[in-house]
Amino acid sequence: MSGIQIVAFLFCFCGIGAIIAATASNEWKVTSRASSVITATWVFQGLWMNCAGNAMGAFHCRPHLTIFNIEGYIQACRGLMIAAVCLGFFGSVFALIGMKCTKVGGSDQAKAKIACFAGVIFIISGLSALTGCSLYAHRITSEFFDPTFIAQKYELGAALFIGWAGASLCIIGGSIFCFSIVENKQTPRMVYAYNKPGSVMSSRTKAYSADFKASKIPPKHFDKNAYV
């Protein structure tokens, strides 16, 4: 069971990393080669900067100067991606507490509930990132196939595919965490007993018990002093 939770945590951890990379990337949309007049120069934009490059390898990026002059869908995507990253951070903390391989979190029932809660957080994080990337992609595709749109047309950038992949990993890992509460009820954690130095069950008492079970001597005729 702990192995499944470790796999789920790796899925979610990689998903959050991909979401962070997509959020910070500037390649959410790139200029279409089909509609570009100068094919040696292209423009790619992200949530935070607009960049331009050419075939000579020169690039120049300019950040968005003011938040009030940005289009509404970009602001919405910013909020969704930032929410996904924050939720992923808190989900990772709860997942580490709720995993069976860790020593914090209390009993098995409490750890199972914490792991399920972490799974819900990861699923919400993945849905937030999925919504943000899909909203941005819908705007790009609608402008690209709109015959009345005469401005520069763009295509889907690599950051959108990275964001979709990260969101999918978070949703899959979160679902595994949610199902772990059912598996935890069916296979409770094993408790191994051990003897402390000052415990009553000493080595001599163990030998006495073993010989007593192996012998046919009645209890009243058995000499306990032989083991003292």
Strand order of the largest sheet: 4-3-2-1-5
Q: Which architecture of one domain does the CATH hierarchy give at level 2? A: Up-down Bundle
> What series of H and E elements makes up the topology?
HEEEEHHEHH
Coarse structural class: alpha+beta
Our measurement of the CA-to-CA distance between the termini, rounded to an integer number of angstroms, reads: 45 Å
Shape: elongated
Let me know the largest β-sheet: 5 strands, antiparallel
- The overall strand count is 5
Strand residue content: 5-15%
CATH topology label of one domain: Butyryl-CoA Dehydrogenase, subunit A, domain 3
Radius of gyration: 30 Å
Helix count? 5
Poorly predicted segments: 188-194, 198-208
**Could you report the average pLDDT, rounded to the nearest whole number?**
79
CATH class of one domain: Mainly Alpha
Q: Can you give the helix content as a percent range?
A: 55-70%
Pfam families: PMP22_Claudin
Organism: Pantherophis guttatus
Subcellular location: Cell junction, Tight junction; Cell membrane
Family: Belongs to the claudin family.
What does this 3D model show about the protein?
- Keywords: Cell junction, Cell membrane, Membrane, Tight junction, Transmembrane, Transmembrane helix.
- It is a multi-pass membrane protein.
- Claudins function as major constituents of the tight junction complexes that regulate the permeability of epithelia.
- It is a single chain.
- This protein is an alpha+beta fold and 228 residues long.
- The protein has a domain at 1-23 and 72-153 and 162-186: Butyryl-CoA Dehydrogenase, subunit A, domain 3 (Up-down Bundle).
- 56% of the residues lie in helices and 10% in strands.
- The protein is built from five helices and five strands.
- Strands 4-3-2-1-5 form a five-stranded antiparallel sheet.
- The longest helix is centred in the middle third of the chain and has 37 residues, at 108-144.
- The model is unreliable at 188-194 and 198-208 (pLDDT under 50).
